Amino acid sequence: MCVVSTEVDKHPLVLAGFPAGSWAFAIRIWLAIVVALYASFWLELEAPSSAGVTVAILALPTRGQVIEKAVFRLIATLVGVMASIAIVGLFTQYDEVLLAAFAVWIGFCVYAVGLLDGNRAYAAALSGYTVAIIAVQQIDNPLHVFESGIARGTAIIVGVLAVTIVNDLLAAPDHHSHLAAQLSALRRRVVGLARCALFGEAVPAMTAAGLLSEIVALRPEIASLAAESSSGPVRSAAARSAMVGLVAELFAARALQTLPMAAPPQLREQIVSELDGSSVGVPPSSYASLPMEQAKDSPDLMAACLSWLVGDLLRIDRELQGSLGALGAGRRSPRQWRAPLYRSHRIAAETGIRAAAYFVLTAAFFAISGWPATEASLSFVGIVIGLGASTPDLRGFTVLAVVAAPIASLMAGILEFVVLDGVTAFPLLAIGLSPFMIGAALLMTLPNRILSGLGRFNLIFILALLAPSNPQTYNPQTFLFSVLFLCLATGLLLVMQLLITPVSGDRRRQWLLASARRDLDYLPSHRNQDLAPEEAMFRDAGRIAQLLAVGGNTSQHSAAIKEAMTQFDQAAILRLCAAGLDGLVKSPLQAQASTAYAALIQRKAGSMLASARVLREATSPRDPAASAASATLVLASVVFSSAEPCTEARAEQAP
Question: Of 161, 326, 565, 613, which one's alpha carbon is 20 to 30 angstroms from that of 607?
Answer without folding.
Answer: 565
